[in-house]
Amino acid sequence: MKKPLTAKAIYSITPFTLLDYPGKTACIIWFAGCNMKCLYCYNPDIVLGKGKIDFENVLSFLKSRKGLLDGVVLSGGECTMHKNIIPFIEKIKALGFMVKIDTNGSKPLVLKELIQKKLIDYAALDFKSLPETFEHITQSDWFSEFEQSFSLLMDSVIPFEIRTTYHSSLISESEFIKMIAYLETRNYEGNYYVQHFMNNVPTLSKLENSDKKIRLKDFSTTKIKVIFRE
Ligand code: SF4
């Protein structure tokens, strides 16, 4: 008999969004906890807090949304670090929803299984920075795992996006240009979304305001379109 999905891994649910799954109506499942501690993280409560909702309760909620939503976004926190994430997504897929994951790329083995089992339909992969600043920004040592996750998505047929949160005191303009060059060396083509750090919101670490002048320039190349997001 399969184990019930009783662990309380979920911090909260956003019942409806038009913004977080490209072209789809969706809800967002926020997983508690993260194996990174990015200095600029906007979700300190979720990253440092405990889960309050178990998988079975989320599945009951999703059953009530069948036919009303196209997809489910698994965000957090870091969804791929949770035990039972694979059987949980299997159940979401069995209900007929499309699944998007937001991931920091630290769990390539989990990502590989999700891809092989055709359990995800879209992925948003964080590109935190290059190795020189990765550890400082994320307070973790997962760059090589990020690279493996990036390769897995590049080799798959799953649509995905690469995205970075930009803070001027954490990533200089010249480093940012090197990040775009890195994506080119990895043969990435398409949109590169850059979310500028939002000044004056609670974050994991207290940061000075970020200078927004980088947004005034066009960093796009022939293969990569750099798109700044709010
Ligand atoms: S911003 Fe960093 S710490 Fe916050 S949820 Fe994402 S990976 Fe985790």
Short description:
With 230 residues, the protein is an alpha/beta fold.
Question: Can you characterise this structure?
Answer:
This protein has a single domain, classed as Aldolase class I (TIM Barrel, Alpha-Beta Barrel), CATH 3.20.20.70. An 8-stranded mixed beta sheet has the order 1-2-3-4-5-6-7-8. It has 230 residues and is α/β, with parallel strands linked by helices. The N and C termini lie far apart (47 Å). Helix 4 runs parallel beside helix 6 (143-154). The radius of gyration is 18 Å and the shape is globular. It has helices spanning 44-48, 55-63, 85-94, 108-116, 131-138, 143-154, 173-185, and strands at 10-17, 26-31, 71-76, 98-103, 122-126, 160-166, 190-196, 224-229. The mean pLDDT is 95. A hairpin with an 8-residue loop joins strand 1 (10-17) and strand 2. Iron/sulfur cluster is lined by residues 34, 36-38, 41, 43, 47, 76-78, 104, 126. The site of iron/sulfur cluster has 12 residues, from loops.
**Succession of helices and strands:** EEHHEHEHEHHEHEE
The structural class is alpha/beta
Provide the residue-averaged pLDDT.
95
Name the strands of the widest sheet in spatial order.
Answer: 1-2-3-4-5-6-7-8
Q: Give the beta-strand count.
A: 8
Which homologous superfamily in CATH is the superfamily? Aldolase class I
Number of helices: 7
Unreliable runs: none
